[in-house]
Amino acid sequence: LEKCGRRIAMLGGLLACYICGCIWFSIYGGSTGILAAALTCVVPYLIPDAVKLALAYSLANRIGKQVKL
């Protein structure tokens, strides 16, 4: 993928995980609403996940330069 496409794919994957997790938590987590689920399951992890995405993006770029497929 091109660099912009890789960023979009990584963010889209994380967003899909957040959405599925919030839906699951709102159904099975004790009748909380989707907003409460997002505040519980997403907000505390935004900064750590952003750091992990940045590291993964950087690593993918470095590996991509070394490996030509």
Find the count of extended strands (DSSP E, 2+ residues): 0
As a whole number of angstroms, the C-alpha radius of gyration is 15 Å
Helices, by number, come to: 3
Order of H and E elements:
HHH
- Classify the helix fraction into a percent range: over 70%
List the quaternary state of the chains: single chain
Pairing-aware structural class of the strands and helices?
mainly alpha
Topology:
Blueprint (H helix, E strand, L loop, with lengths): L2 H26 L5 H8 L4 H21 L3
Helix pairs in contact: 1-2, 1-3
Report on this model:
80% of the residues lie in helices and 0% in strands. The chain has helices spanning 3-28, 34-41, 46-66. It is elongated and about 50 Å long. The termini are close together.
Features of the shown structure:
69 residues; mainly alpha
Summarize the structure.
The protein is an all-alpha fold and about 70 residues long. About 80% of the residues lie in helices and about 0% in strands.
